[in-house]
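User: I've been going back and forth on whether these two constructs are worth ordering. Before I decide, could you fold them both?

Assistant: Sure. I'll take them in the order you sent them. The first construct and its structure tokens:
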Amino acid sequence: MSALHDAMLAEMEAASRLVYQAMTPTPQLHWPLLDRRSGCEVWVKHENHAPVGAFKLRGGLVYMHRLREARPEVSGVIAATRGNHGQSIAFAAARVGLRAVIVVPDGNSPEKNAAMRALGAELVEFGDDFQEALERARVLADEQGLHMIPSFHPWLVQGVCSAALEFLRAVPDLRTVYVPIGMGSGICAMIAVRDALGLSTRIVGVVAEGAPAYADSYWAGRLMTTPTAHTLADGLACRVPDPTAVDIIAQGADRVVTVKDEEILAAMRHYLSDTHNLAEGAGAAPLAALLADAGAQAGSKVGLVLSGGNADAELIVRALSGASP
């Protein structure tokens, strides 16, 4: 292994030690019923078992630690979110005694909103979607002297690398790993760890058909935005990608695919029936992509990142009933 890869791994392991001060590694499990359903050997990385029910906590913990080192004068932070990033920031800010303001769009998941408030966040509801909430957060950051935490940043990726390290070290011979793309920290971390470990695993990004900005960007070879991002998978509802994430995905991903909302609902249902695990929309999207791709993957060993399990009761009922989106 090269000196560069050694240095990359050392940085990832240092970030992992910060993460493990607040949480333990999550499991990666093999599920025979998913094998039967897909025709593959399926391993699932269960980030739904993290303390806030999603992988985002890892990035928030590392970001907050680095922020306290670099900017000790900061007394409060602000972020925009559809839920999991906000829970991560609220959790991590409380650990270091910082005020946390979280901006969500109007009509955001009431259960995710309640979880953020329970973690100590001051919640602001504004705008029709994530992008409008983000723009409002930037205004409030200036008005209130708060540090703006983006949804994609190298410190966030460093933290999320801890999950990818756990997965790829435990199951190093995966042919393909399917990773959902919200703003990109999850897939960029998987690419970085794959490269640092010197593996040949193919990495497939998954987005919702109604929020295809990252898929459009990948296939166009440049940053592409969309006027809307309509999907029941709120964690995938991006219409303005991060340019750095787009570049990393373009260089390191095998491809980026889209899945329909009805396929996501079916995948949520399959996770419940085949593994007794709850997957939110974004967390179920990789399984939806594998099932759409199963012919090409037949007989191979594949990984799925179940990125979170924070689904509202109403969405769970829809998934179980087989109701259309």
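The second construct, handled the same way:
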Amino acid sequence: MFTITSSLKMLPVWCIRALLPLLLTWYLFCLFVPVGDGAIIRDISFPAGSGVRKLAAELKSGGIIRSSWHFILVTRLRGHAHHLKAGDYRFNDGMTEPDILKKLIDGDVDYRRFTLPEGYSIFQAAELLEQKGYFTREEFLRACSDAQVLQRLNIRVGTPEGYLYPATYNLSRGDGAEQLLAQMVGQFEKNHADVFAQGQQSRLTRHEIVTLASMIEKEAVSPAEKPLISSVFNNRLRLGMPLQSDPTAVYGVRAFPGRISRADIQRHSPYNTYLIKGLPPGPIGNPGTDAIRAALHPADTQYLYFVARQDGTHHFSRTLDEHNRAVVRYLRH
């Protein structure tokens, strides 16, 4: 194979001595002087099993490096050829070759971040994802109702609602809605395994616990009140009283605005606990760990009612008369 080394051997000694400073200057220039000022940005995929040559060619054609040959040489001389991590990367022409190699060795891939807030429903998540430009609303909701996707995620209740763990997730550029759902369901199972194990004495099923927790999450503003709100719902369930939870009346219609109208209360829906007895058929959002703990371990109270104060907390009452007075005091003003 014809190489620079073999070609140098064919040159006279004086010629080699004259060329070495030039070659060294060129080597250092390509190594430490970036091509541009960072204005050019390229998204480059480095699949598992892909070679350095293909990567170098893409970096060169994208205007990120000056010479693909030089990049290959540096990568091999430094022993990095087998330490580059696969993934989707974002480079710019203001990066030096050591910068590029460090990014590849560290696996500093280009992620899209998505945060699912506590209590958000799949409908709110779909809207948020669309706003960020990751997926369309329809695309995400289609994955949420796809029977094959749900089977792969081991979801047997027809929807992942309630089983998406509220947290921040990293998505590679090639990830679809199913990959995001898999991350969120996986985190739910990982983070809640011990929580459910500690509440094995509950008379509610696992699905009912998640459903109750989703209602607590929607109602509570102050985390300290979650066990109290749980006690109200548990007391009502024990007595056979309707739960009358406002957020259930607007589930699937719009985000819970904090207050609902008479028309909302009268809306026919299998989730509207003003019209149905007991718990709704499933969660109305995705609860955090505190809400699930509260569902499993309600406070020991005789409260049957609560009404929102103006500061985000609630007034809890044992009797209807006390509750009506609180409504007059906190709402009708």
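Notes on the second construct follow. The longest helix spans residues 177-198. Residues 186 and 203 are 25 Å apart (CA to CA).
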